[in-house]
Amino acid sequence: MSTTExxxxxxxxxxxxVGMPKGxxxxxCHCTMCRNWGGGPMLVADCGEDFHxxxxxxxxxxxxxxxxxxxxxxxxxxxxFYRLKxxxxxxxxxxxxxxxxxxxxxxxxxxxEKPAFxxxxxxxxxxxxxxxxxxxxxxxx
Length: 141
Fold this sequence. Notes:
Metal Binding Protein, Guanine Nucleotide Exchange Factor, Chain A, mainly beta, globular, eight-stranded mixed sheet
């Protein structure tokens, strides 16, 4: 269930976002694609379908897999979302919403792809890629 409306914007301000994250939980994704896209693990809030973009003309979307796509500002490159194609569920980088939010790192996904050179101190639920795909009824590519 969605809780609080949160607002944010890209680095240049061309794209403003409004989301309703499902609580204060944050997920860390360690998959190779997320790390390649952002230089490290992606930290996201699950906004479900409750996510809106202002100035969609400034948004580029990249089809990163058969099941998901990634959105970013075409002007400054800020990462805006990871969206599941089926159902339109949005996972939004928590940095867009600001640092003063009461975020809690709750779980990590693709833990089997996490490199050994970093680790989070928080106790979290950890899922491998196969376990995550099983939750969504998908098979890994």
